[in-house]
Design goal:
Layout (H helix, E strand, L loop, with lengths): L9 E9 L11 E6 L7 E15 L2 E11 L11 E5 L9 E3 H5 L7 H14 L3 H20 L11 H5 L5 E8 L6 E13 L2 E12 L3 E6 L7 E2 L6
Antiparallel strand pairs: 1-4, 2-3, 2-5, 3-4, 6-10, 7-8, 8-9, 8-11, 9-10
């Protein structure tokens, strides 16, 4: 038994893309992949086409994506198994922070203390009029919360909700994914750090993430900041 290869210098990958992911896959899109047989090495390719015939396995729908790959050094052989990453957006020479720092929340403070610090951190990035509106919205939300303590309430999505620290706030950034017309959302997150021995927090706008680090789009001066990743027990 043997296989005839027409040209080993140009090969293709048949990758399975889930139905939730194919919307962000298009021809000409850059691809990065690694091989089980060559750990530590990374290869690149380009999406050639997306086959529209679905494959269903265990009620999971997937589509075959054909990736064109150059094999100039002959490292790639037919039948090899690889893990493929489709690059939806790329950023270079940007400020990044560990995802662990964005997940961190101090255990030494109460929920009320955290909410107050996050709110004040948000005020620092506003002008005088924005601060007035934010304080006013927070006071109104507190009054409504007190008068409706025994009734079910909808989640707070106003200005106070953006700064209370109860969850990430999303806003349109106007940035576009490579080759796509959709806008990429910018998320407001809390970043805790040590300043002169004191615990402080700032609100930052974050961009894309590679799973380990996240891009910081706008923030106050972070030079010399000791960002907190975790607490030692």
């Amino acid at each position: 038994m043997f296989t005839l290869a027409e040209n080993m210098r140009e090969m293709q990958i048949e990758a399975g893309g889930g139905e939730l992911d194919v919307a962000s896959i298009h021809a000409g899109q850059p691809v990065r992949f690694s091989l089980e047989s060559l750990p530590g090495r990374s290869f690149t390719g380009v999406v050639e086409t997306l086959r529209m015939i679905p494959a269903v396995s265990n009620n999971v729908v997937s589509y075959t994506v054909i990736v064109k790959v150059e094999n100039l050094d002959g490292s790639l052989l037919p039948g090899m198994t690889c893990a493929v990453d489709f690059i939806v957006e790329r950023s270079e020479d940007v400020l990044m922070v560990s995802n662990a720092a964005l997940r961190y929340q101090p255990t030494t403070l109460s929920a009320e203390q955290i909410s107050e610090m996050v709110f004040n951190a948000g005020l620092a990035e506003m002008d005088e009029e924005q601060r007035r509106l934010a304080v006013q919205a927070r006071e109104q939300a507190a009054a409504q919360s007190g008068s409706q303590a025994n009734s079910r309430q909808a989640p707070n999505t106003g200005i106070a909700g953006l700064l209370s620290g109860s969850g990430p706030a999303r806003m349109g950034s106007g940035r576009q994914a490579a080759g796509q017309g959709s806008r990429v959302e910018v998320v407001m997150r809390n970043l805790w750090f040590i300043n002169d021995g004191k615990l402080e927090v700032m609100r930052i706008q974050t961009g894309i993430s590679n799973g380990s680090f996240t891009e910081i789009l706008t923030a106050s001066d972070l030079n010399g900041r000791q960002v907190i990743l975790r607490e030692r027990i």
